[in-house]
């Protein structure tokens, strides 16, 4: 049985490839962690905007109802003024 032999240059080249692969994996993990943190932040921002939007819609609805009430009162007053004339 013969054992394959690897020259020192081949071993060093293999070592360099492994080190580069480790660095690539490390950078990709860091990039993934940064992307996941950004996604979490954006999700929080979206939730906050949805909440603000809901509050704004509620306020618009309230203001619309108030406007209609004022319109009705003004129409009644105008009608009463017409009756006086």
UniProtKB/TrEMBL annotation:
Keywords: Coiled coil. Residues 25-80 form a coiled coil. It comes from the Bacteria. This is Cell division protein ZapB. It comes from Edaphobacter acidisoli.
